Amino acid sequence: MQRFMNNLARGMAMLGGLVLTFLIVLTCLSVLGRTLNTILHSNFAETILGGLTKTLLDTGVGPISGDFELVEAGIAFSIFAFIPWCQITGGHASVDIFTSALPVRVNRFILMIGEILFALTLILISWKLYDGTMSKMRYGETTFLLQFPIWWAYAISLVGSVVSAIVTVYMAVVRSAEFFRNETIVQVSGGADH
């Protein structure tokens, strides 16, 4: 089961990384297009390039239409795509100034409670995203510029949140078993047992 969850989390993180890379390239191209458009509309460009300025502007040099709509949808998915890997590797930020001096058993209890609360939170988020997806689908809302259905963005985020919830529930079960058995079952790079 651990291997399956690791592969699931790693796969989601890779997919999130691909989406994030696409969004970075999209944003850079849009900013470049916007900058070129501004330059081509200046008197300076008109003086140097003459008629070529109008030709370049006629090709559509400018920002990518709807870039912020794609970034908004893609970032939401990417965030959910990275959560499982962060969760299964213990990569969340933690402040253990006080807890590092506590006994291992107490730290296991704190870790178990944190995992359970996080799992419950992600289940709640997934449930509300499902409700939002159904609502947006029912009303047929679309984005302003690209006119793609808003429920698509909700649906891809829902997939990420459901996978996140599955991995966090698994980790909550693991941390609960570790607390009740008083032994480490899954070693992570962060956490109370290192």
Notes on the protein architecture:
This protein is mainly alpha-helical. Helix content is 74%, strand content 0%. The protein has six helices and no strands. The two termini are 22 Å apart. Mean pLDDT is 90; it is low at 190-194.
Write a concise keyword list for the protein shown above.
194 residues, disordered C terminus
Which SSEs are present, and which pair or pack?
Blueprint: H1 2-40, H2 43-49, H3 51-58, H4 67-88, H5 104-139, H6 150-181
Helix pairs in contact: 1-4, 1-6, 4-6, 5-6
Instruction: Name the average pLDDT.
Output: 90
Order of H and E elements:
HHHHHH
Biggest sheet details: none
Radius of gyration, in angstroms, nearest whole number: 23 Å
> Which percent range fits the helix content?
over 70%
Indicate the multimeric state. Answer: single chain
Q: Give a count of the beta strands, DSSP E runs of length 2 or more.
A: 0
**Category by helix and strand content:** mainly alpha
Query: What global shape is seen?
Result: elongated
Q: How many angstroms separate the termini?
A: 22 Å
Continuous helix count: 6
User: How much strand content do the residues show?
Assistant: under 5%
Given as residue ranges, the uncertain stretches (5+ residues, pLDDT < 50) are 190-194
In short, what is this structure?
The protein has 194 residues and is an all-alpha fold. The protein has six helices and no strands. Helix 1 runs antiparallel to helix 6.
